[in-house]
Design goal:
Blueprint: E1 4-5, E2 29-30, H1 50-66, H2 72-83, H3 87-115, H4 117-134, H5 141-158, H6 161-171, H7 176-205, H8 207-228, H9 255-266, H10 270-285, H11 287-300, H12 305-330, H13 335-356, H14 363-375, H15 380-391, H16 395-424, H17 428-446, H18 452-458
Membrane topology: Multi-pass membrane protein
Biased composition (Polar residues): 1-20
Keywords: Membrane, Transmembrane, Transmembrane helix
């Protein structure tokens, strides 16, 4: 980080001597150090680069925003019992939430370019808290669509994985795969922290106090975002970690227009559709299936809600390990092959799940939980790496659209899973269908073409 480098081979991060006023001729600019515009000397880089503190704030922020994600699977049965709503109706509310989460994400990335991360993320957290609190007073299923679906969906979508991509792209040149894995794991950490707590609250005090708890979690994080998060390394006179100093770009106007233009351009390429299709299956087999329907499915087999929720929390533990490991692997191996392996193994595990559900937790079920946890969002770092490889400076917005497909896939299965349970009285058909879809996703990953020039630049 502190070694002297006069220039880098990557034109996206290269800074020449002419671009750094006051730098003595024949000397370079250290990686991680900045030469403030108009200054006569170089600013010494801190011992621990500021980028790591920004990543830490983003990690805590994502945990707070992810608190609501632990609720839907816990509340299907209580809402069914309290209001008499069918599981299909409740699943529709969850489905709308997931769909808006995904469709908002690409616009959020462009809005962060226009208004900055702090404003967008602070507003998103406030929307999550507002929607969660209002749902305490709902009496009809359309209110579930409005509060959970619209408000919380827009809020969570505005600080979805596009936030992680924006932080990583702006603050890091080196260790991008690792940081992507860490920030992606933050969502699992939120699940780990809040899922057992909310399950206990639902069991002991009802669903309303659990909803208030996640609203407070979102609000608590807002001051951290406003006071500690910084939009760009140039704001504090530093270069990104592992790169050269670059001035902060001017705010990008026309965020919505740019977002749509990037989608149109990306949609003309084959890799976009393969990434979007495989990531839609990823969402269907995680958020749409396991996060939404695992707890009620286990309860159908006689398992206590708190026990099933604890198993989901254990998934969160191993999700952290698996995602960080996947980020490390993505920095070293072909992202396409990693994705193929992840999807294939996930599909095999889903085919066995109906045989493992029982009233008590036994060793084969524990093995499934550990395995699925390691694989849960391990797909994110290689997917984001392939977006960077093929789409360069627009990669965060392209990834936002790919994430939209992830959430649409999740939304479809969240709804159809509830309908299948109402029609067949069991979730088995959903597990088998999702396993087959994962096999298709593995094939999609393998046929994504390699962009040799960009892969070399990003190596």
């Amino acid at each position: 980080m502190l070694s002297d480098v006069s220039e880098t081979t990557d034109p996206r991060v290269r800074t020449t001597q002419q671009e750094l006023p006051g730098t003595p001729e024949g000397t370079g600019t250290p990686k991680g150090a900045a030469t403030p515009e108009g200054a006569g000397g170089r600013k010494r880089a801190p011992r621990i680069h500021r980028a790591w503190f920004v990543a830490a704030v983003a990690f805590v922020t994502i945990i707070g925003g992810a608190a609501f994600g632990s609720l839907p699977g816990l509340l299907i049965d209580p809402l069914h019992d309290d209001f008499g709503w069918s599981r299909g109706e409740i699943g529709m509310g969850v489905s709308l939430n997931m769909a808006l989460y995904g469709l908002t994400a690409p616009f959020a990335a462009a809005l962060m370019d226009r208004y900055g991360m702090r404003k967008v993320v602070a507003t998103a957290l406030t929307m999550i808290a507002t929607g969660a609190v209002l749902s305490v007073w709902m009496t009809a299923s359309w209110q579930l669509m409005l509060y959970w679906g619209l408000l919380v969906g827009l809020g969570t979508g505005s600080m979805a994985l596009s936030f992680s991509a924006t932080v990583t792209n702006r603050w890091f040149v080196e260790r991008r795969g690792l940081v992507t894995g860490i920030l992606t794991a933050a969502g699992a950490s939120g699940q780990l922290v809040f899922l057992p707590l909310c399950a206990w609250i639902v069991d002991e005090h009802g669903w309303e106090p659990a909803v208030v708890t996640v609203a407070l979690a979102a609000l608590v994080v807002v001051p951290f975002v406003w006071l500690l998060l910084r939009d760009h390394p140039a704001d504090v006179g530093l270069a990104p970690y592992g790169g050269e100093f670059t001035p902060k770009p001017e705010p990008t106007r026309g965020a919505a227009k740019r977002t749509v233009r990037v989608l149109v351009d990306a949609a003309r390429t084959g890799p976009f559709w393969l990434l979007a299709g495989s990531f839609a299956i990823c969402g269907a087999s995680t958020n749409g299936l396991i996060r939404t329907h695992f707890v009620p499915s286990a309860h159908d087999h006689g398992m206590q809600i708190t026990a099933a929720a604890s198993l989901l929390a254990v998934i969160g533990v191993f999700d952290i390990i698996g995602t960080i490991a996947s980020g490390w692997l993505t920095d070293r191996f072909d992202a396409r092959r990693l994705l193929a392996v992840y999807y294939a193994l996930r599909g095999i595990s889903l085919l066995f799940l109906p045989m493992l559900l029982a009233p008590t937790v036994h060793p084969p079920m524990i093995f499934f939980i550990i395995f699925y946890g390691l694989d849960w969002v391990a797909t994110v770092p290689p997917t984001l790496a392939l977006c960077r490889e093929h789409y360069g400076a627009d990669s965060a917005i392209v990834f936002g659209w790919v994430l939209a497909s992830h959430q649409v896939g999740a939304a479809v299965v969240a709804f159809l899973g509830g309908v299948a349970r109402d029609v067949f009285g069991t979730y088995d058909v959903v597990w088998y269908a999702s396993g087959a879809l994962c096999a298709a996703a593995a094939l999609m990953a393998l046929v994504i073409r390699r962009n040799a020039r960009d892969a070399e630049l990003l190596a």
